[in-house]
Amino acid sequence: MTSMFSRSLANAIFRRNITRTPCIRTLHTSRPVLNASGALNNILEGVALPVQVKTVTARGIHLVDGMILPSACIFLDAKVFLWNVPEKLWEGWEKKHFEIFEMVVPKPEILLFGTGQRVAVLPPALHQYLRQTGIQVDVMDTRNACSTYNLLAEEGRQVAAALLPMSPKSWRTA
């Protein structure tokens, strides 16, 4: 008896729902916001898209936009800077090669240092100098530094990369 009652109740509810007219919902949109000149505001204006690396080869660092960087460079605040450093790793390197990280505001929370084809430990004096600026430094080969940079930049993190090419080249001759 209860199953017959529940079946008839379910049928009644089902029939009532079928015979109802469908509810028409309107699409809710927000009003466009106009700036002082009467033009629409660009919500992406001022938002810098991060630099993205496509691949790293012997020719240089290939960016997603097609640019090839054949020499040392720095990715900082969605910009690319050519980096004038000595061609021989750690010979003639001084604090002046890292001064850009002292001046930039906001400072990156992490600096990925790509040392070329192989990982080369940063000299203690340079490592100490960078730590005093308040930036965490991770040293790795350039391929891994680029892929880590892509990941962290995509997450929206304050990340910078100082990258050496796979084979040493001066930016003046590259």
From TrEMBL:
Where does it live in the cell?
Mitochondrion
Q: Name one GO cellular component term.
A: mitochondrial inner membrane
Which top-level group of life is the source organism from?
Eukaryota
CDD domains documented for this protein:
Mth938_2P1-like (cd05125)
Q: Which UniProt keywords apply?
A: Mitochondrion
Q: Which Pfam families match?
A: DUF498
Major location, coarse class?
mitochondrion
**A single GO BP annotation from the record?**
mitochondrial respiratory chain complex I assembly
Similarity comment: Belongs to the NDUFAF3 family.
Indicate what this protein is called per its UniProt record.
NADH dehydrogenase [ubiquinone] 1 alpha subcomplex assembly factor 3
Q: Which organism is it from?
A: Sparassis crispa
